[in-house]
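Can you give me the bound-state structure? Components:
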Amino acid sequence: MTRWLPALVAVAVFTALVVLGSMAPEHLAEPNLELGLKSWLQSPPLGTDTRGRPLLEYAMQGARVVVFPAFTAGIAVAIASVIGGLLRCVGDARVDGAVAAFGELVGALPRMVVILVVAILIPGTERSLLPLALTWAVLCSPGAMDEAAAVAERLGGARFVEALRAHGFSWNRIFLYHIVALNLRPVVVRQACETITQVTFLELALSYLSVQQNQSSFTHADDLRSWADLLKLGYPSLVIPEVGTGHALAAGLFLVGMVVLSARLGTYAARAR
Amino acid sequence: MRYWWTRPLVRLLAALGLPVAVPGIIAALIFALPGDPAEIICPPEMCAGTADLAERWNLDGGPWQFYTGWVSSALRGDFGSSWRVLQGEPVSNLLAEAVPTTVVLLLAGMLPVAIAAIAGASGRVPRRIVPAFAAFGLVPAVVLALLGAAAVELRFGADSFDVTGTRVRILVGALVLGLADGAFSDTLSGVGALFSGERKQRYVQVAQLRGERPLSNMLPNLTPALVGQLRARALQLVSGTVVVEVVLRINGVGDLLWNGTLLQDFGVVIAAATTYAVLSAVLLAVQAVVEIVVALWVRRAPAAVRLEGAA
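Here's the bound-state model for the whole set.
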């Protein structure tokens, strides 16, 4: 029960974000100045922006921008992590050396710099978070592979595999069940969840930096809004509370908090016994 | 790894290769983009003479000529000129202003990390506080930087860009770097786990029984792992400077890189990215040197021991 409850909540929260994203409108509603800056109590569930458009639409479009790329990046890192662990179980010194060299080279790159260089390459008409998320996944992979390899090493590596073979287990059972499902699972799930959170933060940072300077975001088309727009809308209320956009800031932080909560609960549910 | 020197050697090679590879990749990317690179500096619909411009900016001979020309100039301290951010301004002038700011920001940002490392190593941090730090570490840099920017604007108002205001911005930026994205909490828990695991080793307990200090016994064994952890944190901080500098409006290399990226100013991007590559290479080289020194230190024979076969 102590595992299932967090797992269920994690899945429920993430599913809510997926549903939110899949129901996102193509464009924001027409402005209605009479409804401008309503709080979440006056115009549930999240209130409205300065032009009377519901913040729920911002939330939905933001979920559409971030959920699929973040999840894809998480899966990519999970796969890299599994590969790292399994390669250590093969016990080949040359393979270990090649993986270590790859890790040193890729791990030494400042991630944000690489992301920005990749961002320049994306044509303005095809802006999307997905290529940036996948680049982030590649940059995260060495750490994930290294950690999974360390777990496999503690397990016994190639000797563990030989011991299970001596018991007559099939390769599938050894690698997929005993190594991946029973032993690498906590690391793999945690790395994937951390990547999902990091990609969400990355989108938030890239979009906020762009909207702060009234420029197009690298992560989505101009007709979409991201959660960073909620933060941008709510920021003035931090300096001048009378502006009355605090509910937008709260909505943005709440949505980011949902991703973090889902990832943390997922990690907790997959922890080692 | 079969030999102890393999990893430090790979790190040293990576440290040497990074500052060379990064401008090479960017040079290749400039020419991989659709259209003539000179058109980025001056679109044909806005000005004539693109061919002359290409020759003047060394863009007329393909990526290899541009790359070798840029590297040889950079080695002499000439990083070319800005294409768009401040068109025609020497990038070396922009870097001369930005690099010291970013270095100060990074060094100040490492202070909370160093405090966390010392606290983790001492093992005296109450266990109850660690989850609180971990929860705080979940806050992303952009959110913490926003709160910091608001605090500075509230306190200084229009004066937040004078000398004192700028210093406070850098200080707040350093705090954000050192605390956000788990920099503090992960160092605390990571170093803490490293030392608490080592304290359980028998040689440490024997050393304690002999009246020796555990730290002096543990350090030679833990230094490589410790330096590895701290380098990872430092690299995280280096990466985080982009967000912090832009949100807090600190004129550093991160801010320069961001503006260059927004405006497709490859003259600025190539120089700023290479600066980051050099910073990263320095961190790698420091880690490799520490690993080599520690490895040689732990392998040396104690002074009182006479080696077999020695005169």
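A couple of observations. Chain A has one domain: 4-25+42-269. The domain at 4-25+42-269 of chain A is CATH 1.10.3720 (MetI-like fold).
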